[in-house]
Here is the input.
Amino acid sequence: MGNIGILFKREFSSFFASPVAYVFIGIFLILSGVFAFFIGGLYERGQADLLPFFNFHPWLYLFLVPAIAMRSWSEERKSGSIELLMTLPISIWQAMLAKHLAAWAVLGLSLLLTFPLWLTVNYLGDPDNGIIVAAYIGSWLMSGAFLSIGLCMSAVTKNQVIAFILSVVVCFLFVVSGSNIVLDAFKAWAPNIVIDTVASFSFLTHFEAMAKGVIALDDLGYFLLVTVCWLFAGLVLIEQKKAD
Here is the structure.
């Protein structure tokens, strides 16, 4: 754990040594406010909750998380610093975990900085703060799943733009797999078990209940499993490219 801690500090500091973290957090806060107030109608709904705020998180993460993840391995490979990293007494999985935790911490910080919205609904009404806490936890877990996909795609190529595009495409498939448009396309020919399986991959399906304050074990397990699987896939890719 010592190596992971050292790498975590290096990675976390690197976000704030450049404008990356500041730009990301700024854009996240601005878009969160725009979606919650102007599109979600936070005031007009007349209800003291943050559902309009959380409903847009999958779509925010769809573009913002790949943007923060695309440099993780692509930059290491392009600059050649990955070769130096390989010579250090650390394993690839420690490096992968540290990169994920560091970027995940930035995402968590971004969520924490939306606390004025929480204060606002508490000032205006009497919300169920337990539901809001559950939604924050669910959103953070979901962001970790998005991030693991981004890290894996970053391990695929040295080009950050390509890594970003690949991440957005894969994340988009995970987001929309449970939507009616996708499911209707399967209903014409596929058996129910296939339709249910496709729907079960959707980030929207698993986050919807959490945004309403319901934290179920299957939803928690889903996001953790997706995170672990994509991080493992990233490890395999890095090991293969190292062998090349």
